[in-house]
Structure formats: C-alpha cells, structure tokens
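Q: Hi! First time asking for a complex rather than a single chain. Here are the components, and I think there are two in total. Is that enough to go on?
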Amino acid sequence: MSDNEKDDEAPRTAHEASGSVFERMKHPTTTGGEPRERGRSASARDIEGEVLERGGMAPDVPEKVRPARKIGRRQPLTEKAAAAEAAAYSVPTDEEGSHVVPPEAYAVDHDPAQVDPREERFAEAQVSALFALTALGVIATCVGYLVIDPHRNLGRNINYVIGGGLTVALLALGAGFCLWAKKLLPHGMAVQKRGPHHSPEEEQLASEETFFAGVTQMGLGSRKMLRRSLLGALALLPVPAVLLLRDLGPLPHSRLRHTGWKKGSRLVDVETKLPIKLGDIEVGGIATVMPEGFGNVEDHALAPTILIRFAPGEIRSKKEVAWGADNHVAYSKICSHAGCPISLYEQQTHHLLCPCHQSTFDMADDANVIFGPAARRLPQLKIQVDGDGYFVAQGDYSQPVGPSFWERG
Amino acid sequence: MSSAAETGAKQTLRYVDDRLGSANFLRRSMNKVFPDHWSFMLGEIALYSFVILLLTGVYLTLFFHASSREVIYNGSYGPLRGVPMTDAYASTLHMSFDVRGGLLMRQIHHWAAVLFVMSIVVHMFRVFFTGAFRKPRTLNWHIGVGLMILGVLEGFAGYSLPDDLLSGTGIRIAYSVMESIPVVGTYVAYFLFGGNYPGQDFIPRLFIIHVLLVPGILLALISAHMMILWHQKHTDFPGPGKTEDNVVGTQFYPTFIIKTNGFLFLVFGVCTLLATFAQINPVWLYGPYNPSQVSAGSQPDWYIFFLEGSLRMFPNLESNFWGHTISWNILIPGVVLPGILFNLIALYPTIEAWITRDKAYHNLLQRPRDTPVRTALGAAFIMFWGILYVGGQNDVLANTFHWSLQATTRTLQVLIFVLPVLAFYFTKRICLGLQHHDEELLHHGTETGIIRRLPSGEYIEVTEPLPAQRAEVLAMQLGHDLPDHAALSSNGHGARGTTANGKGRLTRPVGPLARARASLEGFFFERREAKADTEDDEPKTLTRP
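A: Yes, that's all I need. Here is the structure of the assembled complex.
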C-alpha cells in the first residue's frame, strides 16, 4: 500500500475502509467512501486523453469556505505521511509488542503547534461546564430529597426531581468524559502485536509430560484397587448432598388431585365472601366461587371455580346438565393448559377464554376445547341446591384440576 | 499535577509494587491497545448495566421483605389500604411510596435489567454476524451464551419477586412448565415451591437465587469473559495497517479509559432518565397476587416473550399411557424448544468450524455479506425467534388491530415455518448481491457517472479504480486473500477451492458422518462466479444500439 501515489485518497479508518453506510451517507457523492478528485485514474485518462478537472467539491466553492480544521479530526494524508504511516504500522514493536504510532505518521492533529489554542480553551470550558452541571444535578437531587413531600402526588413529584437531577448529573458527567476524551486527549493510533494464541509446542509437550508423570506417580492407571475404591467413594459422596434436599418440600402423593372442595361446601363468591343462592346470578351471568371457609390462598390455589347460569335449553351436553343444578354449572377456573385462572367469558357464544395463552372452552358443551393450546376440557364440579336454596358441592372434583403432570394418568 | 499529589501517587504505586510486583503488569495494561468501532460498545452496555443492577439491587434488598407471610397493607398508597397481601408485595409498595427515591431505584433496576438482556442479545448479534466467535474465541462465546441464559433467568426471578398479580401469573406458568417434565416434574415443582403452588417457601428461595446465587455466577462469568477478552485482545475489522497479527487502536490509558468511563455514566444516565419519566412495572396497579384472578393482556418482560409465544402457538397435544401423562403442549414449547435454541446458539461455532474445516485463528472480523450462509442462518434464527416473540402478544395484536385472535394465531403458526425459510433465502441473495457489487467495485472500480461516445459510435461508461488501500481491504474481505495471508487463515467462507491445506477435496468422503459433512460444506460455501483471470482494468462498457 505504500508505493501508491493515490494513497491520499485512501480511507484512513477501519470503517471508512469497510464501506460503512454511515460513511457513505456523509459523502454521498462517491461510492468509495471519501470525496476525492476524479479523473485521476489511469483508465479515465486513457479514454479521455485528458485530465478531468473536478474536485471533491463543486469547483466554484472557494477554498476559504471549505470546512476549517477541527480538533480531533484527521486531515487527508500527504503522500509522505501515508508512506510514514505504512512504515509505522509495520515497524517492529518494542519488547512487549506494543508501540505508539508517531503522530506525524498518521497526521492526526493534537499537534500543539497546529491546534488553535482558543479552540482548546473553548473545549476545556465546555468539559468544565458539563462537570459543573453534574454538580448542579447532584445538588438539585439532594435539595429535592430533603424538601419535597414524598407523599405529594403519589410520590411523583419527588421522583421527578431526584430522578431528573440524577439524570442531568449522570448524563452531564458522561458527556463531559466523552468530550474530554474527544477534544483534549491524544487520539494516538497505537499498534500492538498479538502474541500467539497457543503456547509453543515444546511448552505443550513439557506440560503434558509433567501431567502424565504425575498420573504415573499417583498410579491411577496401574493401581486398580485404589482407582476403583476412589471412584466408588467419589460416586457416593454426592448422595448426602442430594438427600439433604429431600426436605425442601413434601412428596406430591395425591395432593395435586385434591382441592379445597368437600361434600356440602357452599359456593362462596370470591368478591363478596357470601354464599351464593339460587337466583343470585342472572341468566348469562358468571361468578368466581371458592369453597366456604376458604382462608389464605396457599391451600386454595386449585380451588377457584366458575359458576355459570345458562338459559334453559342452552346447554348441549347431557352430562353437564346432570352435574349442574337448575341450569347452573360449576367448572374449575384453573386452565388445563398452564394453570392460569380463566376469566374472559363471552355470554352469547358461551366461550370462556384464558387470557394467558388464549385456550378457549365452549362452556355450553362441557367445556370442550375449541381453540388454543389446552388439551383437556375443564373439570366440572358436581353441584346441587341445598334445602336453604344455596349452591353446595357434591364432593371434590372427580379428576385433578389444572395443568397435566406425569402421574396424572 | 501538584508535586504533593504526584509524590503521593508515586508512593502508592511503590507500595503496591513492593508487595505485588505489579509495575510491569500495570504498564502493559495501561498501554494495551483497543480497536475502535461503534459495535464494540454493545458489550460495554451490558457490562455497565450489570454494574447499575448491582448498585441499585443492593439498595432494594435493604427494603424488600422476601416473605409470603400475609399482612394487611397500611401504607400510603390509598387504593390498597386494608387489603390482605404478602409481605413481599407490601414491602414493594412500601419502598415505592414511603421510601424517598425507592421508586426511582426500583425503576432504574428494572430498566437496567431490560437493557442488560437486550444489550447482551445485540452484542451477540454483533459477535455472530462478524464471525468474532471463531477460534480462538469459542470459549468466550460459550461463556457469553451462559451469561445470556442466566441474564434471562435472573430477570424473570427479579420481576417475579414482588408477588403482584402479573408476576404471580408468570410463576404459576413456570410451575406448570416444571410439572410437565416427565417422571420428575412433580417432584421438581414440589421441592422448589415446598409443596403445592404457590406455597410459602418459594419467594424466600427465589430471593436468595436472585440476589446471591445467580449474581454470583454472573459476576464470576463476566470476570472470566473480560479476562479472556483482555488476554486474547479484541478482534477488529480489516483496515489499513491491520493484520491478523496486530491490534490497531487507542491505548487503554488515558484515552480509552476516559471514554469508557464516560460511557458508563451515559448508560447510567439513560437508565435514570427512563426510570424518571417512563414508568415500568407499576405493581400497585396490578394488585396483590390472587390465584383466582388474572388480568387480560398479561405480558412478561420482553426476553420471556419467545417462551410465552411458543406456549401460545404450540398445538394442544397430550398423551396418556399406562397411567401417566405427557403434556406435549407445555413440555415442547416450554422446556424442549428453549433447550434446543440455547444449545444451537452455544454449539454454532463448533458446528460451523466442523463443517467448514476451519481450524485457523481469526482475529480480523468478517462482514455479514462475506459469509452469506452464516448470515442467512442467523437471519432465519432471528426470524423464528421473532415470530415466537410476536406470538407472545397475539392477543394484544388482535385486540389493537381488531384482528381475529384465532386467525392471528393460525397465521403465526404458518409463518413460523415459512418466514425463516424466506429470511434465509433473501438474506443469502442480498449477501451475494452485495458481494457481487463489491467484486465489481474491485475489478472495475467506481462509476463516475460519465457516459462517453467513442468515435466508433460506441457508448461507454467511465469508471475509475478504487484507491489501492481500499482495494486491498476489499480483497481481503471478499476472501481473495493476499498470498501471505492465504496460508494463515483459510478464511472459510467464499474461499472455496483454495482450502488452506490444499488437499482433501479430491478424496471421496467415507462414512455417513463424513458424507453429511461434505454435503453441508457444499451448502455452506457459496460458489461465486470464478473471477476473471486477467486483472481487468478496462472500464465496463455499455453498448447501446
């Protein structure tokens, strides 16, 4: 790359060279990634028999209008600089493989002689202003913390002030650091040799030798009895560790098959905590019910049940009618797919939809699955009306409610 | 620097060096060269959001009660006063409304968690599509995949802790997923939860997993990730002066360290900005968990969407035999699918190296177009994952756009098979097209936009060759390795026919594995049109009648 005359047209950073779209957007006039003189190529000259005189900018733009030099930007390389850069990159490195490319090699500024001192002072002022802003943000945060009533406006006021103050402080600090690095710190290009990724072969051999010498000394290959007893002992050692986990929880036994429903449990509305009587629910209405006397949620996570009242003749399943009472039917509210409580009921279609994974059950057809990932109907709870007109369960669910499990069968 | 401070600093350095002999290490570290590219910041975002998570997380533990004990809320949030709830939820309300800055810290923590997983994923995209995972960095890729999985788990554990209605629903589903595992599933769920769902034990256990176990592993793995990066030195894109054997960039001290510190504060500042003005996880609106309730449109955090989508989209299969049940509709989307996806990601470098017989070291990165099949596989994977992601919000989509929920789901069930294939095909064609364009640039140069008419009446378009440096870099990227380079890297993709060892192409593969590998190799390498033997500097001619 060193001997080419046109190196001053070359990309000078990695992403220029890789043809980054961002770079091209900045220089839309060429696909080469850099505005540059045209007509200097051999092919163009050959064909034209003339040198096309067109610069990167429109010819009528005077030199003075061109962007002034900025701190931290690279200027086009001169041929000499390009040669020096190439040389610098390929120069052997110092003892630990890193060296800094001399600034003159890649013509990066921050050469004190070239930088306008006013510009540098301005940059310093900018960075200092950002750091001062950090201090102001911190002060605002502290004042807000101490002064504002934390309960005012549900705590939004204090949140805005201390959050806003911290935001300003942190963003200003970050911006200050970045500006400091960009404008005032050297942008020296450095080159470092990558060492080999693996050890020299003799080292590999030597370490293998050491390892296997140890193996021989330990006699794991030759001393069979020692090896087998050791393996046996090591195999047994984790057993207590596993055993100690045993008391993490009870064994399932048949717990997953039972809910809080018993024979004669009244159906209690979850919201009002009152038992439900015949006539409490209007035609087409639903209620979420729990067994009477339900306490904390722990024991009753499988018990939630949905009670639906149909108009006479709407129910299409004979079994459903038989297990219900007076056009009222009770089904488990726990989805047979992943156990979410199903709650979206469409009165006209009698569809019950689970909001978690959209399994849809036709409640007029014994909770048949008509859509979604659930594989089973919802279990029905046998109910009847007791002497006082209250709904009561005839017993627990006849099959496990909720999602499937291995022992379910 | 004043002389007193200078003396102090010197004394400190001496003190440390006298005891550790660290001067040489320190000097080499300060001189360490880091290449510069915007995409190398993505991993830094992940690192810094982890720092933010640790800082804010420690603060939150000071106020959070990891307990399922039932209490009656009596704090300053009116709507829930007098409502029975778990202590975990009550303490979350307390720190949100009665601890000054508590809500801010909670929201910074949550936003940083979202950012953490997101930046890990985007960082992985960068590493994948530029081939940075290749030898010698395979181990670091594995660690990275581990970090990603742990990050997702940690996020899920974190937002499950407050025990609000939304998080309780998420845990309920997680319990069901555990139950679906054949043979041991019920026991796994019972031992983890201490019994039937929800149990009293889960929140304290989840808490210690969330604040000690997983962060500890994350910290260890992140340290390993960084140390390996430090040891192996960062990869870089090809460019002037850059070779497989050097690193070109800025030195760690002072420029890089100042820049990267600035970036830390910017990430922190953005998280704080979001936490101040963009509400996240308002648990007081969801209410305490209650197993008989769920809100419509329940949605997890974004990184769980793909699991939610797979659960929603999988058909309703279940088998019963010999008194046992296998719930395929949960087992496959909830356990098997993430297992396959994560394993594919983890094993991809090994698979690719095996297929392409690439045993070389790679320190220079590739552009996505340089490896069309890898890029297309990545695009297909992202598309598959993206459909799962969209599937996780099918109800919200259907509701927002007034589509039929059933039609939305059915469409997605079809698209998940169709779109990845299309994504593969189109990505590959785009890559090849871009390669073709690069070839043209390399051999014919750039268009000048000038059309000339020759004396013969023929029209030609004037082009000019690329600058030498750019042509050199482009040739390297396209796999036309320069002679001294070819020996070093068999630069896998695109360089077929010139395999590094120059043998093996003529022998017939023996055995099914070898045959599979040979056919996969054919799939992997796109045979480009043979390039013209003569370096063609003539301008491309365009003849018109």
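A: The mean pLDDT of chain B is 86. Let me know if you'd like any chain examined more closely.
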